[in-house]
Design brief:
two-stranded antiparallel ribbon, mainly alpha, two-stranded antiparallel sheet, 264 residues
């Protein structure tokens, strides 16, 4: 790929407007993938914005929601009060954690539940979390109390069978979730966009165990600024073992990063 000049970059950004923040066909629109990843990378690179990490996480959440909705929701069995999957292992990137912390901070009861959940989480290895379930600290009266700021994984897991969820999460039966037909493709595409943007911005892209990371974010003054400045404030938090080793998804991320880097 020929390295674009300033005029070419300006034209790219102008053309990106057609796709940035808008739902799209995740299987047949690579241009939208490129546009949103580039937009997020530039947002995260904007050192003049002290809230760029949480702003980018919020943008990513809205993009995922809009794209998921555009792919149809007739199959979705999830509804308000359905909370069965809210007692499983959850990991998220640090910008997502910081966004959630911003919403939770100052809510004493929720902060206490987060601290309690974090203390449990550090004692239970990831591979044992399915056998040692406990309720997400953000859940209150069977409802996500911070639904608008929930992590991307929570937004993307959509079931088309309540019975299957009950068997998995209430009866501990070992079977795959009955995910809606398009949710897997949408989630994979959003992970590619988000991880690529984080890499291009030069910030950590790994997923961390949510409860422990959230407790640290809440207990750390000016956590976003310090993390963006490179302070290892989340170094003690376990990273998601599911990301270990190469995969088809990581290969796609590498390809997108290499393609986009000259255009920033």
């Amino acid at each position: 790929m020929t390295t674009p000049g300033d005029a070419d970059r300006a034209q790219l950004l102008q053309d990106d407007v057609l796709w940035v923040g808008r739902p799209f066909d995740v299987l047949n629109n690579p241009r939208a993938i490129q546009a949103n990843a580039r937009h997020l990378a530039l947002m995260l690179r904007n050192a003049a914005d002290p809230a760029r990490a949480t702003r980018a996480a919020s943008f990513m959440g809205h993009l995922l929601d809009a794209t998921m909705a555009a792919h149809g929701s007739a199959q979705v069995a999830c509804s308000k009060g359905c909370h069965y999957c809210c007692k499983t292992y959850v990991s998220a990137t640090i910008p997502e954690i910081l966004l959630l912390a911003r919403a939770v901070r100052g809510k004493t009861a929720t902060e206490a539940r987060v601290a309690e959940a974090a203390a449990k989480s550090v004692r239970i290895p990831q591979d044992q979390r399915e056998a040692n379930r406990f309720v997400c600290p953000i859940l209150h009266d069977k409802v996500c109390s911070e639904y608008a700021q929930r992590p991307l994984v929570c937004r993307a897991v959509l079931s088309k069978s309540l019975d299957t969820c009950l068997r998995i999460f209430e009866l501990s039966q070992n079977e795959p979730m009955a995910l809606t037909d398009n949710s897997v493709n949408v989630r994979s595409c959003m992970v590619i966009i988000w991880r690529s943007a984080l890499i291009l911005a030069g910030v950590p892209h790994q997923h961390h165990e949510m409860n422990h990371a959230l407790a640290i974010a809440l207990a750390t003054p000016d956590a976003e600024r310090r993390w963006l400045a490179g302070e290892p404030i989340f170094a003690a938090v376990a990273m998601d073992k599911g990301e270990d080793g190469p995969s088809k998804l990581s290969g796609l991320v590498d390809h997108l990063v290499q393609f986009l880097r000259p255009t920033l």
